[in-house]
Amino acid sequence: MHKCDDKLKTLHFERLSPICPCCKRIYGKESELAIGSVVKEKQSDIIEGILICSNKECLREYPIIDSIPIIVDDLRYYISHNIFSIMKRTDLSAVTESLIGDCCENDSIYNSYRYYISVYAFDHYENLKNGEKDKSSIAKILNIAIQNLGNKTSGSIIDIGCSVGRSTFELADKFEDIVLGVDLNFGMLRLAKKILNEKKITYNRRRVRLVYDYENFPVNFAKTENIDFWACDALSLPFKSSTFSLALSLNVLDCVASPYDHLISIRNIVNQNGKIIITTPYDWGNATAIPSWIGGHSQRSEYKGLSELILKDLVENKNHPMYLSNLKIISEIDDISWNVRLHDRSTINYQLHMMVLEKVI
Length: 361
Ligand SMILES: C[S@@+](CC[C@H](N)C(=O)[O-])C[C@H]1O[C@@H](n2cnc3c(N)ncnc32)[C@H](O)[C@@H]1O
Hints:
- It is a single chain.
- By secondary structure, the chain is an alpha/beta fold.
- The protein has helices at residues 11-16, 21-27, 75-81, 83-87, 94-103, 109-125, 137-147, 166-174, 186-198, 259-269, 307-316; strands at residues 33-42, 45-53, 61-65, 68-71, 157-160, 179-183, 200-208, 211-218, 227-232, 244-250, 270-280, 327-343, 346-359.
- It has an eleven-stranded mixed β-sheet. A two-stranded antiparallel sheet has the order 7-8.
- A hairpin with a 2-residue loop joins strand 3 (61-65) and strand 4.
- S-adenosylmethionine (SAM) binds next to helix 6.
């Protein structure tokens, strides 16, 4: 292990200067992180190492594992709750993996892990196997969003809740600046990073129940030098205010504990005239307690429980107690189709609401 010098800093680390999420919460300070130590490196990428908070009163450490920096406020909680994905071995053959899957319960951590990877890897990449580039529903959603962006922005881009990364790759292709994909799911990030480094995808595609087919095929994207993937929390993004010119939150709003804090955190990291793209089916799940939902209940109110009306009001109505100031709606589309395939005999079709916002001062 050795102390690093400047040449070990990666492009994304230098350009984005991430900050300590703990210092932000405890002291309200934007303390930059420094590269504390590098254990393993390859070219300009740190495979394993430790980032450290530059604030002497804090000095909190954040690990880089499998070249994914983990920059979250409660690291102890994150590591202990994601220990399976972080420590999961990836060297076993498909036949052994299938036997292990048969031995675990349907709702075991192992079967949930490969199920979610299969759902998003299929949507993001499966069509590339046959070269049908525009058939992925996430790539189509992204195209619609970009067409409705108004003036094209220039500057750093963040793809929040990027999952296995297809939208991040597409953004790098369509823009000239650096793109960062962030998510909290370590297994998904590891797959995205593997695709970035190896230009191929390997995953188990769910056929039905506990039956999976091994997939392995090449994928090629442009300007991959502009891409990186980090583990960060959408509710407490570890960046200084005004770091990004474009932020995307594709189908994440209804998956987080506090959709409102997610919106506040995005607004903070986007610069003046920067854009924010939000798509969501408002299909509130277990991650969000009912009082934190934006709509989806209280149908007797003037909003009739309609989430899209409430979100719009939060942005436009200065008298709303939770008014999200400094945001302007640029465009809005309802009913964008998003297909989420669960297995060969089941696909969910969502109708997304999309909003493009501009940050105005
Ligand atoms: C419904 S998926 C959408 C994935 C991808 N954007 C797409 O549209 O295909 C929601 C994603 O948000 C991620 N996520 C959930 N809560 C998060 C949080 N607090 N911070 C960062 N990512 C989060 C999940 O791990 C998952 O990858």
